[in-house]
Amino acid sequence: MRKLFSGLLITLILSIFTVVTAIAEDATNTTTLAAGLTSGSINSTAAFTAGAGSTVNGFVTAVAAVTLGADVTVTGNVTAGAAFTSGDSAKIKGSVSAKAAFTSGANSAIGGNVTVGADFTNGVNSIIVGDVFVTGAITLGAGSRILGSVHSGTGVIIYGAGATVGSVN
How many angstroms separate the CA atoms of 50 and 74, rounded? Predict the structure, then answer.
């Protein structure tokens, strides 16, 4: 009886270890968060897409592009190995880093700095609380605001009607 119990216990422990390992492997390679769902931090060995109205409680890191749908909220930093795109009313409480182009939808908000390896387009009535560092051109939609400074690698900054920047370097 004792051997049977020990054998069952060992089998149970190995099964739990296998399930936890499989869940951990999936959590480190998430490529899609469906609309309206909530997740913890995201790591992707490819691109990452968050559907409209979803929430990431933590950071997002992807080897390729990051696409956030409308009304997506991210409470941490976002790092894209390629382009970054967000839909209307997306909210990021941290910083954003993208190795390629950056495009935000209307009424979006970013609570930190933005670093972009190509062109930058900020949506209508969007706000960035930090500094913006761009290797390409900068386009600010009408009414958009950058509270920090902007740095354009090409020196091209296009202001939409009513767009403002804290300072230009």
Answer: 10
